[in-house]
Design brief:
alpha+beta, four-stranded antiparallel beta sheet, 10 helices, 11 strands, 19% strand
Length: 379
Amino acid sequence: MNRKKQHFFLLLQLFVTFIALFLCLGLNLKKLSNYFQPLGYRYEDAWLLELDFQNMPAEEKSAYSQLIKDKLQSIKEIELVSATAVVPFQQWGKEEKIKYNKQSSLALGFEVDEHYSGVLDLKLVEGRWFKPSDYALNTIPVVLTKDLAERDFKQESPIGKTILIADQPALVVGISETFRENTAANLSPGFFFPMQTPATKYLLKSKNTDNFQLLEDKIRKAVGSVGTTEILIRQNISLSLVQKFAQKLDYIQLGITLIVFSFLLINVFLGISGVFSYNLSKRKAEIGLRVIMGASPADILKQFLGESMVLTTLGILPGVLIVTQLLIMQYLEPYTNGYYGAISIGCSALFIYILMLSCAFYPSLKAARLNPSDALHEE
């Protein structure tokens, strides 16, 4: 009974360790692969300005927003100004329901203006970007990302097609390259549509983004020249620095995950080693009898290492079945998918087998070297 109880807790420990290791690998393998995928835009020559209009009325806010945009555009070091609600590495789109040919799906909506693609060098695959003359149409002009066009239209070109976005008609005028929030983010199918609210964020294109003092001072003076103290500057910084800050947060998150998981592995290693040592200490008579009957130390070692492998298999098998089912049912999307999930399952299982062998090897070796007469005498 005691041995069954000990085996149960050992199997439970192996099961929990497998699940924890799978989640750790599954979530971070996909993130790691994303670092080698293109973002779809360039941020090195972009600058972020974020304003706070405080309690300014909507009409007044709209007028000042346009005035500030004009002031910024007049700065000779600034090539282009885009009013936007979407800032890479910081503020992303919001999920919207889209419908085409009675088929509904979800995609991210990116609220930007007509200059957004120019500021970030966002390339078009097909069609064109929307322009001010499109705003007079009865339908909303939209640019789909390439991954959204491939997902919802397959081989059919969406250019010129009318889709429903939140039950509002929208005309597809172009297709852009895929668009990712940052180097760690997954690809997020989405669409760009014109600004519908007064802008509080601006992306500026300039070759002088590395000259922080120059741009920061000129932008601050341009905002101050509109003649109101109600407008506050919340951010006035290059997009490269925003990217570095976001990357640091990713590193911190990964570091915390590794530290927590390291403590878990250390506890598991010590716990399993202790269980093996205790169990083998209770089997000295069995070991002595086997040696007397002709078993060599190598046979004893192989027996106990084989038992550890059987226990490992019994411990991780339920975990393998559970996570496989979750992957098949796509419950782990978008954190991991079938490909990275399969790699995570294999690596997690292999790691636990190696961990169990390392835990069992020394106690098994010690048992294999036991003197049979001493073992029988002690019993």
